[in-house]
Amino acid sequence: MTTSTQYQCGNCGWRGIEAEMHRIDDIHDRVSTGELMAAGECPSCGDLISVADEDVPDYTLQIVAKIMRKRGWLVTPAETEAAETGTLRVRIEADLERLRQVSQEPVLIRYGDQVQVEIRPKTDDDRVTVVHGSLGFVVANYQDDGVAIDVADGEGDIVQTMTATEF
Ligand SMILES: [Zn+2]
Questions:
Q1: Going along the chain, which residue ranges are E strands?
Q2: What is the pLDDT of residue 125?
Q3: Model pTM greater than 0.90?
Q4: How far apart are alpha carbons 81 and 65 in whole angstroms?
Q5: What are the helix (H) ranges across the chain?
Q6: pLDDT in the model for residue 1
Q7: What are the residue ranges spanned by the domains of the chain?
Q8: 6 CA distance to ligand 1 centroid (A)?
Q9: Which long-range contacts (CB under 8 A, 24 or more apart) does 20-26 make?
Q10: CA-CA distance, 33 to 51, in Å (whole number)?
Q11: For residues 118 and 106, is the Cβ–Cβ distance under 8 A?
Q12: pLDDT tens sequence across 30-61
């Protein structure tokens, strides 16, 4: 945030810099989750003034939460956590997409101490295999007309197959 950024009140048209705006004391009563982009209160009419678009970093809500806390605003941990979850999800999805594009063979990704998830090349199908270190694995196959689940034992032998077909 630069101190020279110009803000404008959407209600009365007041223009000025951040230091001239009043702090929002009752922010929780006036701004709900999802619209936390208020920068301050208009010194002229008391309306909330939004953070200038160019001042909102491209990255994530988490960063915004950090900035807000620096300014003395209360951002509940729950919101921060949710924002981080969202950030991680977006990042992992992007990594998965890339991994599927560049890999020629399925790659095992650790999910838990004993459990791995197989990530298949993009050119392959979207089947998902979940592997346990000793107990066996499960394969979810998605076809045009339904789903098939293969269950294998620790030896790798398919012991059961279930199908659900769309009629
Ligand atoms: Zn105003």
A1: 6-8, 15-17, 38-41, 48-50, 107-110, 115-119, 128-132, 136-143, 146-152, 158-165
A2: 85
A3: no
A4: 10
A5: 27-30, 61-70, 77-102
A6: 47
A7: 6-56, 103-165
A8: 14
A9: 21/49, 22/46, 23/72, 24/48, 24/73
A10: 15
A11: yes
A12: 665 555 467 788 899 988 887 755 555 545 56
CA of 19 to the centre of ligand 1 (A): 15
Which tokens in the block code for residue 115?
């459990």
Distance CA 127, CA 141 (A): 5
Mean pLDDT by 10 residues, the chain (167 residues): 68 86 73 61 86 54 69 62 79 92 94 94 91 94 89 94 81
Which phi-psi region, left, alpha or beta, contains residue 46 (left: φ > 0; alpha: ψ -120 to 50)?
A: left
| Beta bridge partner(s), residue 44 | none
11 CA to centre of ligand 1 in angstroms:
5
Q: Which residues contact 28 (CB under 8 A, 6 or more apart)?
A: 74
Interval between CA 54 and ligand 1 midpoint (Å): 20
> How many other CB atoms are there within 10 angstroms of residue 159's CB atom?
10
